[in-house]
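Predict the 3D structure for this chain.
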Amino acid sequence: MWKHFENIEDPRTSYLIEHKLVDIIALTILAVICGADSWVEIEEYGKSKVSWLETFLELPNGIPSHDTIDRLFARLCPKQLQSAFLDWINHIAQITQGEIIAIDGKTLRHSYDSSQNKSAIHMVSAWASNNNLVLGQLKVEDKSNEITAIPKLLAVLELNGCIVTIDAMGCQKDIAKRIIEKGGEYILSLKGNQGNLFEDVKQLSDWAWKNNYQEIIGGKI
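Done. Predicted structure below.
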């Protein structure tokens, strides 16, 4: 973990630092993995596991308070943190040949706030099925923006030897090209609103079915 997060810029004033940056990041990641979903719960997790955490974290001044953790993450550069986290995830995922990476968009429940005219948060995520691990995710304004977020997500993923699955929103030439360029293969959903492409695929499928797929895969299925 250290080598992936050590290059994140520490926004704090050096002579006021009491807790190492990597200690706070590691503590936060471990706490969230174990179900913590607030800064207070991250602090409580740290205090309950302090003897174990001290075996691999320095913790020169013990477990930082939830206010300290909150202030630090509020000042960290989001892009640096995301890049470091994705590098770490890709490293520990140990993706193998034939891994299925499912890319999908989901709206987070209860993420809207009608009183402040705030719409629900929509995320596009990449899920490694064999590893049961989210490899990366991006926030988008709404479902219609998935088509612009998918290429950005593909850009930070290791796809060599993997099969990428995407729903009909991702059935685009540019997206298919990007996957191939990164050494992956793809399965893209196709709907009737794709016009000529849908008709071409339907005609080919109907013809192959009538001919028992003899000239498609060289034998019966």
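The beta strands are 100-107, 122-128, 133-140, 163-166, 185-188.
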